[in-house]
TrEMBL record, chain A:
Coiled coil: none
Domain of life: Bacteria
Organism of this sequence: Planococcus wigleyi
Record-given protein name: PP2C family protein-serine/threonine phosphatase
InterPro entries with a match to the protein in the record: Bact_Sigma-Reg, KaiA/RbsU_helical_domain_sf, PPM-type-like_dom_sf, PPM-type_phosphatase-like_dom, PSer_Pase_RsbU_N
Presence of the UniProt keyword Hydrolase in the record: yes
Pfam family membership, one: SpoIIE
Domain PPM-type phosphatase: 121-332
From TrEMBL, chain B:
Family affiliation: Belongs to the anti-sigma-factor antagonist family.
Gene3D superfamilies: STAS domain
Protein's UniProt keywords contain Methyltransferase: no
Species assigned in the record: Planococcus wigleyi
Protein name stated in the entry: Anti-sigma factor antagonist
Length: 333, 109
């Protein structure tokens, strides 16, 4: 094999020495790619070159051969650097496979099911900016006319954030009730996160509980972007603000909760800051822009509204979301 | 995507000026600089954010971590010069209630 490569090299070199055309150079370029594929080190290429020149021009003075030996020595570290790069590429590839696996596990683990509730149409979209989603959405439903939903954003990204989310999920599962009140849910999760998470990782979370019979939403927030209420009869948007500290900052945090009764055509818009903190060349995309998008589609099914907002925001930001995007819309029908 | 952090400390009083954007890319720079001081006993820190034109939740995380450390060592952190946008971020997260924060337009919105 090596002999064959040496012969090929000698032939290509010889052609070039005779004619020096672009075509000869092109052949040489292609051959060098093949050498890289075959893992031939730079110093080996020079050895090959020296051997070929010796055969073709044996009458050259001694100094030329010495100079080649020196050059070979000079190239050895380049060869090592190349080897190192190749092993890094391989490691990177392995890491990528592991990340893909982890992302899959996350997806399976954190899967949630949209609840079916009388008189409520739900739209949902959660799209990670990178491989792992730092946003988390979880529905709790017992098919008894009640459903809870948690919309959370883990501050701190990547793998640690994903692990933190699993904790939230298990915390919610341990409560195991669609009747649970927001202030209780938030307190429980706060204590779990506070105990077990690193000092610079926090979670913001909006939790709401919906009673289908009375069309009543009870909500609380742990430092989360406020949800928005659209009142169909007034054609107006307002914030559903509830005081509460981020989860994981202080074990003593207490959470407010409020209620709002929904009427036909009303929308409750729950989201993460990936929706509201969008930026384009002109600056921030203001919340009013998002309200306008929603208003334009308010008569369509909740899922169409959610999809439309995403598509339009994506267009405004040239398809470059900086943060994970999660948007949930409840529509009273 | 750049940040400038100037910190000067004397007699356990830390004065800081932060300029630029604090996001996932620049937050590690800020975190590293603040970490040098956060374990000093009884540190009084005053950080001026009037030239911070953008901060996301990652940046918020850095300040909370710093606040928690300094507090647990008997010190105090004050953030000043917050723009309306930054102030809103601290208010929504409930941090405005537990941290010492001073916005630019005091009394206004």
């Amino acid at each position: 094999m090596a002999q064959e490569i040496e012969n090929q090299y000698k032939e290509i070199l010889n052609e070039y020495m005779k004619k020096q055309t672009e075509q000869n150079l092109y052949v040489g370029q292609n051959f060098s790619r093949q050498l890289i594929l075959e893992n031939i080190a730079p110093e080996e290429v020079i050895s090959m070159h020296k051997a070929a020149i010796q055969e073709l021009y044996s009458e050259l003075p001694e100094v030329v051969w010495h100079s080649f030996d020196f050059l070979i020595e000079m190239m050895i570290n380049y060869g090592l650097a190349l080897q190192e790069r190749q092993s890094l590429l391989k490691q990177q590839e392995e890491l990528k496979v592991e990340m893909d696996l982890a992302a899959n596990v996350q997806e399976t683990l954190l899967k949630t099911k949209l609840p079916l509730l009388e008189g409520l149409d739900i739209g949902l979209l959660s799209i990670p900016a990178r491989k792992m989603n730092g946003d988390y959405i979880y529905f709790v439903s017992d098919h008894d006319g009640y459903a809870g939903v948690a919309v959370a954003d883990v501050i701190g990204k990547g793998l640690p954030a994903a692990l933190c989310m699993s904790m939230i999920k298990f915390g919610m599962d341990s409560l195991n009730s669609s009747h649970a009140l927001p202030k209780d849910v938030l307190s429980v999760i706060n204590r779990i996160v506070e105990k077990s998470v690193d000092d610079s990782m926090f979670v913001s979370m909006f939790y709401s509980n919906y009673d289908a019979k009375q069309a009543r939403l009870t909500y609380g927030s742990a430092g989360h972007e406020p949800a928005i209420l659209y009142r169909a009869k007034d054609n107006e948007f307002s914030e559903l603000f509830a005081k509460g500290l981020l989860l994981g900052v202080s074990p003593a945090a207490v959470y407010e909760e409020h209620t709002v009764d929904l009427e036909k055509g009303d929308l409750v818009i729950m989201m993460t800051d990936g929706v509201t903190e969008g930026r384009n060349e002109d600056g921030f995309i203001e919340r009013e822009v998002i309200f306008e998008l929603i208003e334009r589609k308010k008569d369509e099914p909740a899922q169409s509204i959610v999809q439309y907002v995403y598509d339009e925001l994506e267009r405004m930001q040239n398809a470059q979301f900086q943060d994970d995007f999660t948007l949930v819309i409840y529509k009273k029908v | 995507m750049n940040i400038q952090v100037d910190l000067t400390e004397s007699d356990n009083i830390l004065e800081g000026f932060i300029r630029g954007e604090i996001d996932a890319h620049t937050a590690p720079v800020l975190r590293e600089k603040l970490e040098t001081y956060q374990n000093h006993q009884g540190l009084k820190a005053e950080l001026d954010l009037s030239n911070v034109n953008y901060m996301d939740s990652t940046g918020l995380g850095v300040f909370v971590a710093f606040y928690k450390s300094v507090n647990s060592n008997g010190g105090h952190v004050k953030l000043k010069g917050l723009s309306a946008r930054l102030k809103r971020l601290f208010d929504i997260t409930g941090l405005g209630d537990i941290m010492d924060i001073e916005s630019v337009g005091k009394g206004g919105n």
